[in-house]
Amino acid sequence: MVSVARAHVAASGASLESRLVYADVLTERGDPRGLFITAQCSGNEDAARSLLVRYRKHFLYPLSSSADVEFKNGFVDTWTTTPDEFRSAGRKLLRMTPLRRLIIHNARQCDVQYVINATGFEHVRILELINPIVGALSWLAMHEGLPGLRTLGVIGTWMPEERQALLDSKLRSTLETLEFTRNPPLPRGPRLG
């Protein structure tokens, strides 16, 4: 029953109703994640924060306990990661949660390929590449569109030719936003959304 409910949450675009149904199933089974989902969905930040402190490692699974994430309505909503961390746990996370925003540092072409071909990537709405390695943006520019993706942000350093290729690409016409920013943000720890 839990795996069916979890699949429903991931497939349904993460409606509050489906998350609360899943939370009830977890709570009935004694899983504290159910209480965490309920606390966040109801806006009880004190309870959510207390549960996150106590069960952080459990709530972050399959990510490491030091993962840089933001939770929203009981699930990882934003994940800032490296290509190696994504290869280690990313595909599993994308199957388990409707991740909305993915931020990747120092991605090469093969890393970007691996990420966007992962099952569940179609739920990602925002992809940010921080200091992408030469070739990553050119490879993205060859795509006519990425299902679900609405915003692509490129942060830090990039080759001017690759920037122009993205601006001129068919992918650009499928995005609501394509942003280029020179200064990358500082990493943070797990946060409540």
Please tell me about this protein's structure.
With 193 residues, the protein is α/β, with parallel strands linked by helices. The chain folds into 2 domains: 1-55, no CATH class; 61-192, Leucine-rich repeat, LRR (right-handed beta-alpha superhelix), CATH 3.80.10. The protein has 9 helices and 7 strands. It has helices spanning 2-11, 16-28, 32-41, 45-60, 83-96, 109-116, 136-141, 160-167, 170-174, and strands at 68-72, 75-81, 101-105, 126-130, 151-155, 177-181, 191-192. The protein has a 7-stranded mixed beta sheet. Helix 6 (109-116) links the parallel strand 3 (101-105) and strand 4 (126-130). Helix 1 (2-11) runs antiparallel to helix 2. The radius of gyration is 17 Å and the shape is elongated. It starts with a helix and ends with a strand. The mean pLDDT is 89.
